[in-house]
Amino acid sequence: MTNELQSAVRKLKNNQHGSGAWPWFNGGRDNRFITQHIIAGFGHLKQLNVTSTSDEETMIENAIDYLDAQFVQEYKDIRKHNKDADLSKDHLSHTQLHYLYTRSFYSEMTPSKEVQNIMEYYQSQIQKYWLSRSLYEKGLMALTMYRSDDAKTVGKIVKSLKENSITSEELGMYWKTNTNSWHWYQAPVETQALMVEVFSEIGNVILSEAKNLEVVDNLKIWLLKNKQTNSWKTTKATSEAVYALLLQGSDWLSVTEQVDVKVGGETISPETLENVKVEAGTGYYKTSWNGSEIKPEQADVTITKKGDGIAWGALYWQYFEDLDKITSAETPLKLSKKLFLKSNTDKGEEITEITSNTKLKVGDLIRVRIELRTDRIMEFVHLKDMRAAGLEPVNVLSQYKWQDGLGYYESTKDAATNFFMDYLPKGVYVFEYDLRVNNAGDMSNGISTIQSMYAPEFSSHSEGVRITVD
């Protein structure tokens, strides 16, 4: 770790330009945002009481000189590019706001009188226009104003953030407006991490200490639950999330007590199980029973959590059953599947739902309708829809499709149709495709199954359907 740390600092030192700025890539031109991001990162380390070396302090001082100059220049450009510019209007750019947040970590480095005056101008803009800005910007504003001792504005912003949030036992505390975008200031993981920082540092302004601790823990729960079913795509998102999890709130990292699990009255723990290894750091372990070992009383499972923080696990019960006798399963992913007989009439196309009493004949056209509901955003999800042996797909070409804001790859195979979704937003989705009745007989049409590829505990299936073809 020491070698990695020294290597990272050396790389930063070698890549910093004489101006104090860093490029995006080595050899590139000065990049203000990258420089602000790096200096904010040093600010985060400072908040976590990590002391800087003399080399790091020199880098920080040079970078802040560069950022101060860029801050002043952008302010001057308001007038330069528009001589009649009304300075009372909203001129809060995202970069200027991020600068104010970054600069607030270094109050000991006194800015010049010019920089100070411009800071006061932007602070007056924040007081006037904070309500119309995005969630991420409100977080930047709240921390900036708190560190410049404007308790009145801070109280308004934090109260607004709290009132617009949603808290659920399953997902923690989050905001509906915190959605994906192409902009750096609209990134869900970084935004949630910033909210953890806001409430860790200044939540006590509107809440009691105990109540605020609960809020911070709920914000952290959303981050961890997000990681369960999504990848944190960038080093920036990951580092911001790690910083948030290390901030105030309950100390979850020092919790070492295992969760007590009882299955049918028998305590299950690594000590009582043979050949079971506990994963270092996470405490993860698993065990299983074969069919002959399973007794009816094992259907009673009791889980007792002793320490603070969050823990989760999964219990699977696998057995053989006729496909058409399977009942639906409900998890955060919910599936329902229906078959309809498609016919052409004088009024146009009509569909009627197929039941166990419906008599089909060879040549009939069947429409499959699958309804999927999810209560959270997920990534890398696979939906597999089985079909009866006597049915053949009308569309046999695999292709990428787009409908209702959802992109997915549809792949038609011999016994099933597969849908692969690399990004599944929260909501309700309907998939439809047509099948032709090819053979007579009494057949099971199988079930639809769905599973998150990287969080297999998030899985679900529809009930089985049986069809009869004369």
TrEMBL record:
Pfam families named in the record: bMG10
Gene3D superfamilies listed in its UniProt record: 1.50.10.20
GO molecular function, one term: endopeptidase inhibitor activity
Domain Bacterial alpha-2-macroglobulin MG10: 334-457
Name of this protein: Bacterial alpha-2-macroglobulin MG10 domain-containing protein
Species of provenance: Winogradskyella psychrotolerans RS-3
